[in-house]
Amino acid sequence: MNIFRKVRALIFRAQQKWLYSIIKTQIIGPDIKDFTIDPDKPVIYAMLYPSHAEQLVIDREVSRFGWGSPQDDRTERRLPAKPFFAIYRRARPFSRKQGTPVVARQLIKQAEWLTEDASRDIQVVPVRVFWGRAPAKEGSFLKIWLQSTGAIGGRLAKLMAIIFNGRNTFVHFSRPISLRELADNETNAELISRKLARVLRVHNRQVSSAVLGPDLSHRRTLVHQIPNRPLVLKAIEEEAESKGISKAKAQQRALKYADEIASNISYTNVRFLDVMLTWVWNKIYDGIQLHNMENLKDVIKENEIIYVPCHRSHIDYLLLSYVLYHHGLQLPQIAAGINLNMPVVGPILRRGGAFFMRRTFRDNKLYAAVFDEYLHSVFSGGFSTEYFVEGGRSRTGRTLSPKAGMLAMTLRSYLRDSRKPILFMPVYTGYEKVFEANSYLGELRGAKKKKESLIGVLGTLRSFKRSFGKVNVTFGEPIYFTEFLDREHPGWREEDYDACDFRPDWAPKVVDQLAKEVVTGINTAASVNPVNLTALSILSAPRQAMEEQQLIILMEAYRDLLASNPYSGITVLPEGNGADWVAYAEKLNVVSRSKHPLGDLIQTDDRQAVTLTYYRNNVLHLIALPSLIACLFVNNQRYTEEQVQQLVALFYPYLKAELFLHWNNGDLTVEVKRWLNALQSRGYLILNDKGYHATPASSNEYVLLAGMAGNVMQTLERYFLTLSILRRHGSNRLTAQNLEEQATLLAQRISMLYGINSPEFFDKALFRTLIQQLIGEGRISRNDEQVLTFGDGLEPLTEALEDILEGALRQSILRSLQ
């Protein structure tokens, strides 16, 4: 018997060696390091279907984990059956697509062994081996072979899948299940086995959904179904009546819209993109670092995921899909602007999961209905989705004010069908050097945005000769849609949403709040890199130049402050020290070095300085509160803690609206006290019986305090500029648009006079946000003619700003208004 066992073992290892000569595996799913495997208890492995090839793979992979070979485990622990069992019996070739649920004999034997001794336990590890990854899809038998998911076909199909797709093999291990705990007090081995099989089948459906997504309907079928949906049929009738065309022509127009919008995901295309993007990332990036990924994997199985990333670059589209694919998660359907549907590029993106939308379709009710219905098909079909709530890419590096259109359509879809819970997953992408930096620089200086084109895409190939540093991708804290609706509108479940064009009165307010929570969640997930620290430090210096040692001290001081008082529990900080970061910034050409006998200087030219404002703005919200506190003291002011709290509370609503800060008013007092303690403990502020005040201006600590204040001081200067224009013209003289335009022009003038290399200083959108917040706070209002009116509500803000801001700049602003 031992001889036969040894021979079988030799054959098993020989087969395993041959198999691994033609396949390449990648572990996906939960982090194996988080698994709790008891070495004193046997382990068995639950597969989807019986498969000797999968047993070879499982044995090799778990041996690499240090769990021991399953074959050896059976011998050592004297298990009554093989350590592998399946939960389905494979369907016969060319018959049904789904297998038959079974309770394996091996499992029953293991359960019998368990019940013989109450001290025994068995650890059950569910495993899926994907010979390539693609959801089930109507198509040829050859495609099934090439994109085997393990759901159909026999030995021949499996062999073909291994041969054609073995280099793309993914192995998904799930956390172990204690058979003793699952059995509870049950002693019947067959009942225990049936219970485990049911649990594993449910778990398998969740894994399939998370990794593969739902079955893909044929695109042509979906496109032709959309014009027949009630919402679209009503829009077709209205289109025919309003445009004076036949109903058939209106229906044909709806069909054309659906074809223009719909994605056509192809996993053959995805594998091509995988190979291409792996080459691209290795060519232009030094690495992609992921954070909080396990948080995503924990929530994805039981929820439909809507990814809501920040939008810094066109690379965002590709990067998130690449990351998800390589971590064994379902590829999302991605909302992309119609401007990207250009020759060559458009079809590739469409086959990678992109669906295209026009920038605006407010006046095209038929297109809106078709897009609404398509989006509902995506949501109700169980697909994960991705869209950018900012609308467009940020040219300044700040998170933009959200556009609520996609969120509103998501809400309407969810009210129609809320069977599967939705969660929003904020995603922050932090670049050390953004791919479009040159075009952003031109646009910030007044150049018109270039239209995307194939020639433009080909032109970017020149950039592959340069390094763009590392990329940080952080998954934030999920926003559960059901819980959000329960909080914001508790009675939403009881209302009637049967009408095909329903738009609840309460929806706009709820959607606006959701939009704010999403962008706030994105900012909460922000990461900090060496370029961010370089920008925070050097931009506050006169002429944006510093002694190297002073720059190193400042960068490390920022890192230490953010480490001791993190903005959130998932804030990521760079490793290394200031000297490493300065050398790295030089390598990326974001700063320059000037040699000097008394010590090298690190400086920026005009182009570098403007570019660095982008990377400072990426993380400005992380340092905004201590920077605001620092602003109170740099001009030799002295305040008690109560006065500091009052002044911070006065300005905080405007900073919160602009930077999407996450503290509520109730949390603010505690946070301000925490930062006062931190600044005092490090010597940046001094506390005596008269209150807080800054250290002497000659001290190193004052240099950091002044530098920190500089990050928010320009924001306060914009506030003073806006309020000064209002007061100069008086109440009932300006509309919001007039004020916005005049403030922008004056800010441009001041920036030229004072050499302010920060394009966001005269960003019209920021003035718009300030005006809206002033109205929201009740400090100004609009009359029936939309003219701004105000009383004494502006005085507290103006007086506080006059105390805080440097006198020469205030006088320059006031002189410009005379």
Explain how this protein is built.
By secondary structure, the protein is an alpha/beta fold. The chain has three domains: 18-211, no CATH class; 219-524, 3-Layer(aba) Sandwich (Glycerol-3-phosphate (1)-acyltransferase); 530-816, no CATH class. Helices cover 52% and strands 12% of the residues. It is built from 32 helices and 24 strands. Strands 9, 10, 11, 12, 13, 14, 15 and 16 form an eight-stranded mixed β-sheet that branches. Strands 1, 2, 3, 6, 7 and 8 form a six-stranded mixed β-sheet that branches. Strand 18 (592-594) and strand 19 (601-603) form a beta hairpin. Helix 25 packs across helix 26. It is globular and about 100 Å long.
